[in-house]
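Input for the complex:
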Amino acid sequence: MQRRSFIDKTAMAGVLGALAAPAAMAQAGTPAVKWRMSTSWPKSLDTMYGSAEHLCKRVAELTDGKFTIQCFAGGEIVPPPQNMEAVSNGTIEVNHVLASAFVGKNPALAFDTGLPFGLNARQHNAWMQYGGGMEATREMYKKMGITNFVCGNVGVQMGGWYRKQIKSVADLAGLKMRIGGIGGMVMSKLGAVPQQIPAADIYPSLEKGTIDAAEWIGPYDDAKLGLNKVAPFYYSPGWWEGSASITAQVNSKAWDALPAQYKAAFECACNEQTMKMIADYDNRNPEAIKKLVGSGAKLSYFPKPVMEAAFKASNELMNELAASNEDFKAMLPGWLKYRRDQASWFRVAEAELDNFTFANVTK
Amino acid sequence: MQRRSFIDKTAMAGVLGALAAPAAMAQAGTPAVKWRMSTSWPKSLDTMYGSAEHLCKRVAELTDGKFTIQCFAGGEIVPPPQNMEAVSNGTIEVNHVLASAFVGKNPALAFDTGLPFGLNARQHNAWMQYGGGMEATREMYKKMGITNFVCGNVGVQMGGWYRKQIKSVADLAGLKMRIGGIGGMVMSKLGAVPQQIPAADIYPSLEKGTIDAAEWIGPYDDAKLGLNKVAPFYYSPGWWEGSASITAQVNSKAWDALPAQYKAAFECACNEQTMKMIADYDNRNPEAIKKLVGSGAKLSYFPKPVMEAAFKASNELMNELAASNEDFKAMLPGWLKYRRDQASWFRVAEAELDNFTFANVTK
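Predicted:
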C-alpha cells in the first residue's frame, strides 16, 4: 500500500537513502497536493462556510501542511449553480454543497441531502455510514466522475417566512414562495408557485410583495436577513427535508490519485465536520429563535391538515420521480424501508425520552 | 489539479536527489509514539469496542503508522474499574470508557457522560464542542492529570429488563435492580435497591430471582444476553441518561508531549467516532428491537407517573450532589440552562417533524 509506493519512489530518488532516516525517506516521497474547494456559501453563512474552512484547516494539520485545500466562498471561482459540473469536469477538485441544489440535473441527488419527511440527521448518518446509503449514492455519482463524502448537516430547517397566516391548505393556493428543489415541487402540488430568487433579493421581494413567502435555513441564518420585519409569520417545521446533509463532491480522478494517508485525512476531516457543523447549529439556534421571537417573528407550527397534505403530496412526488428516473427508482425502495425501520426504533426510546424531557424542562 | 500535483512530485524528487527538502527534514524529527488504550468493553460489545479499534486504526493511518495506539479489551491490561486511575497515574496513556462508571470517585463525571433526563446525543455534542461543556469538564479532569475527549455516543438506552410488570411507582419498592451510577441513586430514591453485578452474572441472577431487574444498554447489545427469556418485561426509555457519551481520557503529560500533527490526528479521529459510533448503533438497533420482540420481549413505556417521579427524584438528586460536590456545583447551573434552551429549540423544529414523520411512516 502506502509504504510500498514510498519504497519504490525512494529507490528512484537514489542518494536520499544515505542521507536521511527511514521516516524521512518515506515522507520525502509524499507529494505536495493542492486542491481548490468551491463552496455554495457566502462568507456570511459562517456556520456552513466556517465548517468548510475548518475542514480545509484540519486536512492541512493532519498532513503537516502537505495536502492543502484552498476554500472559496460561493462565486469566488465558480458560480454556485456550476459547482457540481466544475468538479465533474476537473476545473476544481472538490466542492462543498447541498447536493439537492442540483436536482434539476438529477432529482435522485436529493437522497444525498434529504427528502421530504425523510431521515433526520442521525438517521441519515446511519444510512450513509452503515446502512448502504454511501454505496447507493456513489453508484449514482460514479456516472458524473464524482466521489461523494458527507461533511456536515444543518438539521431540520424552519418552514419559512410568510406575509400572511397559513391556516389551511387553501391558503397555499397561488402563494408565490421562494423555495427550490424537491420542496418546491411538493409546494407546487399543493397549489403554491415556487420562485427561485437569490438570497439578497428575498427581503426586497417580500417587502414589495413580489413574493408572499420565502424559506431560507434556520433561526441562526435566518436572523441575518431580518425577514421578520417584512413577513412576520414564521412557520415550522421545514418538512421538505428530514435534515439537510452537506456534501463534499470530489473529482474521482483527483481522489484516486491521492496517497492513502491523504485519503484518510480528507475522509476523517469530513466525518469530523459531519458531527461538528450540526453541533455548531444546535448551539447557536436556541439563542437565535429567542431573538427572532423577541423581534416580532410570529412563530407557529404548520396546521396538521397542511402537514398531512404535504406528506401525501411528497409520497406522490417520490413515486413519480422513481417512475421517470433510474437512480431514483434504484434508491427509493431501500430508503423507504430504512426510514420506516428507523422511525419504528426511534419511537421506542429516543423520541419518547426527548418528548418527556423537552416538555418537562421547559415548564 | 491532478496533473499539477504529479509535476510537483517529479520536481520534488529532483531536489531530493541533492538535499533533503525542509518537509522531509521536519518529518525525520517526528517521533514514533506508541500508546496503550485500555477500554471498558469486552470484545463482544463490538459496537463500542469496534469504535475504539477504528479510532486506533485511524490514528495510525493519519500518521503513516508512526503514532500507534494498541487497543485492549476490558481487563486485558487494566480491570475496568481502574481504567481512570491507570490513566491518571500514567500506567496507560489513554482509556475508552463511560466516565459515569467512576461517579463513585466524583459524581460530577456524570456531566461528561450524561445525566438523568439530560441532553440527548446531539445536544450533548453541541454543549461539549461549542457550548462550554469541554472547558467545564476539562477543568474537573485537570485535577486528575487527565485531558478528556468525546469519542462516541450510544444514544438513549433502554429502561431495562424486569421479571414483573412495573405498573406504578409502588412496584419499584424493594425491587432489586442491577443499575449503577447516578441512575442507581435515583432508583434508590424511588424505593428500588440498586445492585452492582458483572454482565456475565445478569442472566443467572435474573433466572434464579436473586435480582428482579437489570438494565444493560440498548437492543443490539441486550440481544446478546438473552434476557428476554428470564425477565421478559422490557421497558423504555432509559431516562437515567439523556444519552451516553463515551470518553477517551488521556494522561495529560502524554498529551502535552505529542507533536501538533499527532494531536490533530487523535482529536479528529475521536470526533469522527463521535459521529460514527452512534450511526453504527442507530443502524443496528431497529433490526435488534424487532428480533427481541419476536423472541418474546414484552415492550412497554414506563407509566407516566413513574417517569414523573423519576424526573422529580433526579432533580432532587442533582441539587443534593451540587450541595456536596464543588465540581457538580460549578457545572450544574450552566448545564441546566443549556438543557432548557436546547429543549425549547428542539421542540420548535426537530421534535415536531420527528414526531409527525415517525407516526406517519409507521402507520
